[in-house]
């Protein structure tokens, strides 16, 4: 991604961010699960993947699954490792009011890859529906593909129950505009009950 485009997107995200406060009891966890936005994201930060029904985050009524958390109590989370972000949230346990800067986003990411013909490599690899590598500067990266995301749809067709070989075949013969819907793989497993959430 060129520096000019990054700066433009960076300012767009921060202009789109809004601040909110979540009130909680002293000693109470915030009640969230966060995941990485995925390598290839315009602005790498963490995404709200799940909320404890009785927790402060859910009780506030101000947050939604898919929201990107830009900062907590004016500490930026942009570019920080997931474990560091989790540590910051765990450190809020004794606070009674938490300030969050949020960019509201749907949990599903829409990707548009423009592939003129089959001579152009898609520029990413997939294993069991999960994007596991991405070529820098390729048409997939430019289209918004992110490492660690689960492919949900390809050109309007659900691939959730599709075999790995069929997904690969579908992608390999696709040309023109390839529309995909993806979400972080961890979020997908949480939403489908394949993984038990550990709230912090």
From TrEMBL:
GO MF annotation: an example: amyloid-beta binding
GO biological process, one term: chemical synaptic transmission
GO-annotated cellular components: cytoplasm; dendritic spine; plasma membrane
Domain PDZ: from-to ranges: 19-104, 110-186
InterPro entries: APP-Binding, PDZ, PDZ_sf
Signal sequence interval, chain numbering: 1-24
Any Pfam family the entry gives: PDZ
Alphabetized PANTHER family for the sequence: AMYLOID-BETA A4 PRECURSOR PROTEIN-BINDING FAMILY A MEMBER 2, SYNTENIN RELATED
Record protein name field: PDZ domain-containing protein
Species of origin: Stegastes partitus
């Amino acid at each position: 991604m060129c520096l000019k485009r990054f700066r433009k997107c960076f300012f767009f995200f921060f202009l789109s961010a809004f601040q909110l406060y979540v009130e909680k009891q002293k000693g109470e966890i915030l009640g969230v699960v966060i995941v990485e936005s995925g390598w290839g994201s315009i602005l790498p930060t963490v995404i709200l993947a799940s909320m404890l029904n009785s927790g402060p985050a859910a009780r506030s009524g101000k947050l939604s699954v898919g929201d990107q958390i830009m900062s907590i109590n004016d500490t930026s989370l942009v570019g920080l490792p997931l474990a560091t972000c989790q540590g910051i949230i765990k450190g809020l346990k004794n606070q009674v009011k938490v300030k969050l800067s949020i960019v509201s986003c749907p949990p599903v990411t829409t990707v548009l890859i423009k592939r003129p013909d089959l001579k152009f490599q898609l520029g990413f690899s997939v294993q069991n529906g999960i994007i596991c590598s991405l070529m820098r500067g390729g048409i997939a990266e430019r289209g918004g593909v992110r490492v660690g995301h689960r492919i949900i749809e390809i050109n309007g067709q659900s691939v959730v129950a599709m075999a790995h070989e069929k997904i690969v075949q579908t992608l390999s013969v696709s040309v023109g505009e390839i529309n995909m819907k993806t979400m972080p793989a961890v979020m997908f497993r949480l939403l489908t009950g394949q993984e038990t959430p550990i709230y912090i």
